[in-house]
Amino acid sequence: MGAFILCLLGCGGNCQANLSANKNVSANPAGNVVTSNLSWAIGLSLGVWISANYSGGHVNPAVTIAFATVRGFPWKKVPIYFLAQLLGALCGAGVAYATYFNAISIVEGGSDIRTIAVTGNLFGTYAADYLPSVSAFFAEFIGSAMLLTAIFMATDKRNGPAPPGVVPVAIFFVILGISSALGMDTGAALNPARDLGPRILTAMVGYGSAVFNFRNQYWLWCPILGPIFGMIMAAFFYDAMLYRGSESITNKPSEETERHHLHSCARQNKLCGVVETV
Questions:
Q1: DSSP string covering 221-275, please?
Q2: Buried/exposed 243-260: b ≥16 CB within 10 Å, e otherwise
Q3: Taking CA 192 as the corner, what is the angle to CA 87 and CA 200, rounded to the nearest 5 degrees?
Q4: CA pair distance 93, 165, nearest whole angstrom
Q5: Residue 202 scores a pLDDT above 90
Q6: Assuming Cys at both sites, which of 79, 92, 133, 228 could form a disulfide with 7, CB separation 3.0 to 4.6 Å?
Q7: Is the dihedral of CA 12, 14, 17, 19 positive or negative?
């Protein structure tokens, strides 16, 4: 449900802002890059909020993998979460596409015409023409690292426990800032499901295999691997440098340390018992 809301509002915001710029669709533009960024920020915030009590607010496979790698999230749940996130993103993009089907057909020049350059990029993300592949990967890597750092920061109890409902609001501002500052190069996917779900949808509705053949499988190494590696790196850095919780693998005590701690506690309790007896 969280990924569904994310892509419904995000892709819908892209469609409204871009399609309304065509005079055959609307006399006046009904949006711009700011409203698009706001749509993605609101979509992510609401998606995290609505799923917080059921999945911990996981709407991003890269976040889930980072938590499994560093914070002890069960690896056996990762495939289930990824499938749910992907299906949610696919369905959310599908509803947005159905909503704007007629406008897309007008802009494309017919209901049987679908091209990436005109409307396909309203759903999946594609690197700008001027951007080399290495820079595209780096853009997704650094943006995703910033997002994961913000998530860890907002949920870190040592920063002062956040009141209920504050984390989704914090994520809203973070994603708005990242998309506004770092979104021009690649569209700031920052989420494998957010890109792959809508990309599969476009392949199904007429954009064809071109959505996967773009720049030699760009869909795999940039909007999927870029966020995953970026978030894993950020998770290790945050926990190694800032975090002190024992659930992190960077702070988890060894078995020998745990035995020593238990032995010390038992000895202290025994001494306390002797003192009380005396």
A1: HTTTHHHHHHHHHHHHHHHHHT---TTSTTTPPPHHHHHHHHHHHHHHHHHHHHH
A2: beeeebebeeeeeeeeee
A3: 50
A4: 26
A5: yes
A6: 92
A7: negative
